[in-house]
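#onboarding

Welcome to the new folks! Below is a worked example of what a typical request in this channel looks like: someone posts a single protein sequence, and someone else replies with the predicted structure as tokens. Don't worry about understanding the tokens yet, we'll cover that in week two.

Example request:
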Amino acid sequence: MRTKSWFVLAVAALPLASVVLLEGTAVAGKVTGTGAVVCHVSGNLKFDPPLTPNGTKAGKEVVTVSSSAVDCSGGSPPASPGSTVSKPIKTMATKVGKTKIAGSCKSAASSSAMVKGKQNWNGGVKPSKFELSGLKFGLDSNGEVDEVGTSSTTGSYAGSGRVHIDFNSSSSAALEGCELGTSSAPVSSATIDEANSTIGE
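Example response:
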């Protein structure tokens, strides 16, 4: 049961943990994958400047995503995820008086976001394009900070589904302390809990 809202800066970045933003033309002879696919997500997010309860004097917040879609199931042919590359997420600072503040957990709480991207597949399967929307953070029944939303896929394995991303226990504790203001320690990164993080149908 979700009991707390969560900062959207990570919301915007997290979904990119499972998608690819690579450009390029399709290779001749590739096939379009069909059917429902579910993938786990591994990796981490890095925040620059680090997140703090009240933010830092800066012009923007940059979130770098290093992540992969892994252990996929379903689809025809069976889904086998390729390399994952994501663009940094840049969020402009908020003006507080005459000062620009970025990386504030409190000011980013209770919002939602949309992320678009592309996932490459192995085995001669054409890429998928994703649109992840309604993304919000909360606390799940495991006590971990999680992100939930919906996914819409075109291209290979087209369809709609859900996004559910958890952070591991240490990252969850750091993020919760930041959002609640119970800890002043900067949060420079957050690690995804692969076992409990999925995207798909």
